[in-house]
Write a structure and sequence with these properties.
The strands form 2 sheets. A 7-stranded mixed sheet has the order 1-9-3-4-2-7-8, with helices on one face. The chain has a two-stranded antiparallel sheet with strand order 5-6. It has a single domain, classed as Peptide methionine sulphoxide reductase MsrA (Peptide Methionine Sulfoxide Reductase, Chain A, 2-Layer Sandwich), CATH 3.30.1060.10. It contains 8 helices and 9 strands. It is globular. The longest helix has 17 residues. Strand 5 and strand 6 form a beta hairpin. Helices cover 37% and strands 21% of the residues. By secondary structure, it is an alpha+beta fold.
């Protein structure tokens, strides 16, 4: 579904430029004092980036690819299932304003972690649900959140989210960054991403940045 809208709404020149651009590897993101990093895959990164950009304490969100062995993956390769990477986001956040567990709570409730190798209309392992931990503490917190969700029967089906160690995050092509904000009229954004953002507002009304309050 997403591939269809991408091909329709991006000009041929733009497609050619992003194919040639390649991607940049981020092994260890540079952080300021008081910052930490979280890396999640929850389907289309246009959606997950838009959700977390609105969360209090989140300083930056970057779309990219992770979890595969291929070097410098491109969007065309990943979206067509030609690599073992997943679409993902890298979140830089202020630990004084939001905790890793709070980010996980938002992650698990704004996408469907029970869907194996898909998310809504997007089908394939590139859209799998996964958490890529940066420390043993993040790993243990993730396991704890999944156990909590399962014990409380938040989802009827089993949570299939992968828990993997962080390796290399490949920054997606420039036009994917802030895609939601720059393409509000895209049918995919309207039909798939906007409902996820609305779910964030409904479930976490006290964790929305002031500049996005009017979107409620």
């Amino acid at each position: 579904m997403k591939k269809f809208f991408t091909l329709i709404f991006i000009t041929p020149l733009f497609i050619l430029s992003c194919m040639a651009q390649g991607t940049k590897a981020v092994v260890g993101p540079q952080l300021k004092t008081g910052q930490a990093v979280a890396t999640f895959a929850g389907g289309c990164f246009w959606c997950t980036e838009a959700v977390f950009e609105r969360v209090v304490g989140v300083d930056d969100v970057y779309s990219g690819y992770i979890g595969g062995s291929e070097q410098s993956p491109t969007y065309q390769q990943v979206s067509y299932g030609e690599t073992s990477h997943a679409e993902a986001i890298q979140i830089i956040y202020n630990t004084d304003l939001v905790s890793y567990k709070e980010l996980l709570d938002i992650f698990f409730l704004t996408h469907d972690p029970t869907q194996l190798n898909r998310q809504g209309p997007d089908v394939g392992k590139q859209y799998r649900s996964a958490v890529f931990y940066h420390s043993s503490e993040q790993k243990e917190i993730t396991i704890g959140v999944i156990k909590e969700l399962s014990a409380n029967q938040v989802y009827q089906d089993e949570i299939v989210t992968e828990i993997k160690p962080y390796g290399v995050f490949w920054m997606a092509e420039d036009y994917h960054q802030d895609y939601y904000e720059l393409n509000r009229g895209n049918p995919y954004i309207l039909g798939v991403a906007v409902p996820k953002v609305k779910k964030l507002f409904k479930l976490f009304p006290n964790q929305i940045k002031e500049q996005y309050q009017s979107e409620k």
